[in-house]
Predict the 3D structure of the following.
Amino acid sequence: MLPSAVPIILFALLLFVALAFGGVVLLSLALRYRAGTARRQGRRWAATMNVWMTSFSAVLFLFFTFLISFWLGPTLRFALAGMAIGALLGLLGLGLTRWEVEPAGLFYTPSRWLALLITFAITARFAYGWWHTMHHGGSAPGEQHWLMTTSGAQLSLAVAAGLIGYYLVYAFGVRHRLLRHDRSRST
């Protein structure tokens, strides 16, 4: 093999790895969207488990966010704001969910638009992290927009808290709807 061919092969290999990584990321986003819009049968045990596990996650998340706020600044404020926005989106998601009562039980289909919005939020957070890493602001912090002076960790926590808030409210809503459905069937 000629020595001049080595850089071309390395470049081709790096390009292949980058394209493969991009393909895997796009595939995972598409599968996340597909799973988020699938029609599901409501099962009370699964809904109860979702409520408990999501509540546990939310408590742990807020606790650790409180702890790291001593080192990273107002991360708890960003997390609480993200959780509040996520809770409002969870209520909107419950309102947009299609509920179907069948002899086999209660089925529900989450909103496609809200699943797309959640997938977009995750994608936007990764894109912002990449962009923020590549563009260190050259001007003084007082002259920059608040989004530029916000750390990537604070926005990551806000997006993560938004997702936790959304799923927490949605899990409580699904469980409440299933309990109400079971009560109406038994009477």
